[in-house]
Automatic annotation (TrEMBL):
Residues passing through the membrane, by range: 370-388
Record keywords: Membrane, Transmembrane, Transmembrane helix
Protein name: Saccharopine dehydrogenase-like protein
Organism annotation: Aliarcobacter vitoriensis
Domain Saccharopine dehydrogenase NADP binding residues, every copy: 3-142
Pfam family, one: Sacchrp_dh_NADP
Domain (Saccharopine dehydrogenase-like C-terminal) ranges: 147-404
Length: 432
């Protein structure tokens, strides 16, 4: 199996390690990696605890990814006979890498979509889905929006609805609410994700579905108090717009209400910046360059993500004391019993929690953030088992994660959940 990554970062290094470990455990086939990067030295820093990965890897350094997209034949010796291309860079490159995958008859995966534009909002379609027919015609698989959320959250929701479809009574899902927790206790300001990406997501007016209509809110204008399993405190959550909302509405159109919330330390910081008008896109008139906005200044001066080595040192020196990521979907349903026409309302909570972050220092994953670790674990597991079961499950075309349970079947679904727990990710399943 040959895996090609476009871009290397904290999530990419985790995915590569997971694929390496699952390959040894499950199939023990030959596995090699190719990393297409802008700076080889900086990229190798992400594998400072993974010599085995570097021994099975090649690196291709390019100043500009555009050249490989425009002149694919020039890179045939690197890309031929690949199993999958993974975009672990930015969503801007999704379509270009997908077209490259079609050129070389290769499967594809990515971690996120560009959804903050009018075209996606009006169509409620991801840009990658425009190439669905081409991937289907070539019997190729394209997994989009992988990770922990979106990704595993969608998979677990899909798996639960798949199970409900096999029950002897009728179950109608009325509402899905996804709740995210991003909590870190640290003496230093440490971002788990790119601050620029976080600012863009938080600044965008939250969208949600109510009675099948798309609604909009002002950022941080509403909130709710929520109690996450495994987390000791109640958390204030705020509506947010992410890929899950579009994806779930596509897959389960009969669900009338779909909403998403997020909370935790990082979100509280973003809320404070927003309410102080420091995320404004208005120009700062009177400065030498009047085209500079407050938002651009904040993005420029806010601390960037730390290197894996720095993260490891922060944990060793107890600068980072605790961190937790949780994603819980509350599924409100109505159960109908045909024998007596009785209807019962019920709410089930499913999801994940990762709260063993500081223990990563003892593993090959040391240096990951508390978000990049579960994101990479989730993406790696879904990619590996989708490829492993591609032939018998007839996986092809552009697929979102909640569709996988129907295609993979109960046995593989159970294996995927067991793999998550083997990586210290707690599964949540309860009835409220």
């Amino acid at each position: 199996m040959k895996v090609v990554f476009f871009g290397v970062g904290a999530v990419c290094s985790v995915i590569a390690r997971v694929l390496y470990e699952l390959n040894i455990k499950t199939s023990n086939n030959n596995l090699e990696f190719l990393f297409i990067v802008r700076d080889i030295k900086k990229s190798k820093d992400f594998f400072f605890k993974n010599k085995e990965i570097l021994e099975n890897s090649n690196f291709l350094e390019l100043n500009n990814f555009e050249d490989i997209f425009k002149n694919p034949k020039d890179y045939e010796k690197y890309l031929k006979k690949s199993t999958i291309f993974i975009n672990s860079s930015i969503p801007l490159y999704n379509i270009d890498i997908m077209k490259l995958a079609l050129e070389f008859k290769t499967n594809y995966a990515d971690l996120a979509s560009d959804i903050y534009n009018d075209k996606v909002i009006s169509s409620l379609q991801f840009e990658q889905q425009t190439l669905n027919k081409e991937f289907e015609d070539n019997n190729l698989l394209a997994l989009i929006n992988l990770g922990i959320s979106p990704g595993i959250t969608n998979f677990l929701i899909g798996e639960r609805l798949y199970s409900l479809s096999n029950l002897p009574y009728k179950t109608k899902v009325k509402k899905i609410e996804i709740n995210l927790l991003e909590e870190i206790q640290s003496k230093q300001l440490v971002f788990s994700w790119s601050p620029n990406v976080a600012i863009e997501e938080i600044s965008y007016p939250p969208l949600y579905f109510k009675k099948n209509s798309l609604k909009k809110l002002e950022p941080f204008s509403k909130s709710k108090t929520y109690k996450f399993p495994y987390f000791k405190n109640f958390v204030e959550l705020y509506p947010v717009f992410q890929e899950e909302l579009i994806s779930l509405k596509q897959s389960f159109d009969d669900v009338a209400d779909i909403k998403m919330f997020v909370g935790g330390n990082e979100i509280e910081l973003m809320k404070n910046l927003y309410q102080l008008n420091l995320l404004s896109n208005k120009y700062c008139y009177g400065y030498k360059d009047s085209q500079i906005s407050i938002n651009s200044i904040i993005k420029d001066v806010i601390p960037k993500m730390k290197s894996p080595q720095t993260i490891e040192e922060y944990i060793k020196n107890k600068i980072i004391k605790y961190a937790e990521f949780s994603a819980v979907a509350d599924i409100e349903m109505e159960i109908s019993y045909p024998q007596n026409s009785k209807k019962i309302k019920s709410t089930e909570s499913i999801g994940i929690s990762f709260n063993k972050y500081t223990n990563l220092i003892k593993t090959h994953y040391s240096g990951s953030t508390y978000v990049s670790y579960p994101t990479g674990i989730g993406a790696g597991i879904l990619i590996f088992y989708s490829l492993l079961n591609k032939k018998q499950s007839k996986l092809k075309g552009v697929l979102v994660s909640e569709k996988l349970p129907w295609l993979l079947g109960a046995v593989t679904n159970d294996i995927i959940k067991r793999e998550l727990t083997s990586y210290k990710i707690n599964l949540i399943n309860s009835i409220k």
